Fold this sequence. Notes:
The structure holds two protein chains of two kinds.
Chain A: H1 3-34, H2 44-54, H3 65-84, H4 101-121, H5 125-156, H6 161-166, H7 169-172, H8 175-195, H9 207-210, H10 220-245, H11 250-254, H12 260-289, H13 295-320
Helix pairs in contact in A: 1-3, 1-10, 1-12, 2-10, 3-4, 3-10, 4-5, 5-8, 5-13, 8-10, 8-12, 8-13, 10-12
Chain B: H1 5-9, E1 12-17, H2 23-32, E2 44-45, E3 54-58, H3 63-75, E4 81-85, H4 87-91, E5 113-115, H5 122-146
Parallel strand pairs in B: 1-2, 1-3, 3-4, 4-5
Helix pairs in contact in B: 2-5
Amino acid sequence: MTPEFITYAFAFPILGVFLGLVYKGIDRRVSARLTSRIGPPIRQPFWDVGKLLLKETIVPENAVAWLFNAMPLVAFASSMTLLLYIPFGILKAPLEGYGDLVVILYLLTLQSLAMAIGGFASGSPFSSVGAQREMVLMMSYEMPLATVIVGFALVYRSFSLTTIATTPVWNMVGPLAGIGILLLLVALLIVTPAELAKLPFDIAEAETEIAEGMLAEYSGRNLALFYLSDAVRGFAMAAIEVVLFIPFTLSSIFNLSLTGPALYIVEGLWFLFKVLVVYLLAITLVRTSFARFRIEQASRVFWVYVNIIALVGLALVWMGV
Amino acid sequence: MGKLYSFKRSLWVFHASGGSCNACDIEIIAALTPRYDAERFGIRLVGSPRHADVLLVTGAIPRDFADKLKRIYEQMPDPKAVVVVGCCGTSGGVFYDSYNIAGPIDEIIPVDVYIPGCPPRPEAIIDGVVKAWLKIEKLEKQLEGKE
């Protein structure tokens, strides 16, 4: 436990929350522009959180109160922990060496699970339906997600995210495995909106049919925590994709020989830019263009099509490595 | 900058339709379209009264719906505001004195803003929701008075 480590451990989550909310603001703005609206200002998510913190927090009469109040904290804590495992560009992850891709997979699952348990604990039929749908959706998308991670483990013989971040995956593989990795990228991009409960896979939170589903009974502080963990999770998911698939640094592309603060600033901004591109392509564009699937359609998409893509990718990687 | 500053910038609206003929409801949807774009002001339609700051009520309220409307109002977390859209809700409109309706909405729940019209134009609806700020400013003054 060095002082540097402790500074990182506090700075990363605060920075992560800030960036998560900024990216959410950009996402809403771009989504509005895509539908030729003006859209809310980038600061809008900050105002939303500020307002939610001002509101009264209601615990429904027939909810399991301790579970109902604990789950937003669990979701928020797991998204904060998730941030500590992601190497930001050339910075090392604070918890490097204490966990790997598998832990990240579990932390991502834990958030969806916390929302589902919170939904069951609220004692409202809408929340129960939403939570059940979330469970079905999780069962559908976990398989392709796990396949992607196994594919990476095959290439690197390791689950460590830092190893993956330092050597770009495209240098590790031949042409055949390269096609496999590309297929895994496609599978992961399709899983992303489902993982983040965004359109077209926000079936568990369908506001028009089941009154916001799992979140139906949440208000005030609890809802603000879910809002924050959702924002952080969006940023973290895009960051993971960047670390896995496009870890190229500016210095390696242009053979720059930057040192000291200049290196960190340039590479930091480059990393944020890459995350923004992935965020806009995988989340904003998709959620603006598609309408919501029905739950059995979403299941079929993941169990049949995405699974085939991911498994073919895995097979190619296995043959190529 | 007041205590409720972020409140004014982010109003989440829950829409409860009583015995409405759907004209007001369509106009509410029109306020969200690219032409009027209420999201510019942070106004968003939400699906659950628990998330809402503003309750938008349309239509004359049938007697069967009156207690449900009261329950929706009670489920919203404080601070909250109620906006009535359309003539039917504000005064009873053409259903004034009908034996089927439970009276104007302000006899059932406290109303802060009335938007008359049959149906009101989307500009008027956005203006009305924004006027819900006035109530929040009133709350703000009360808060400051207490200190």
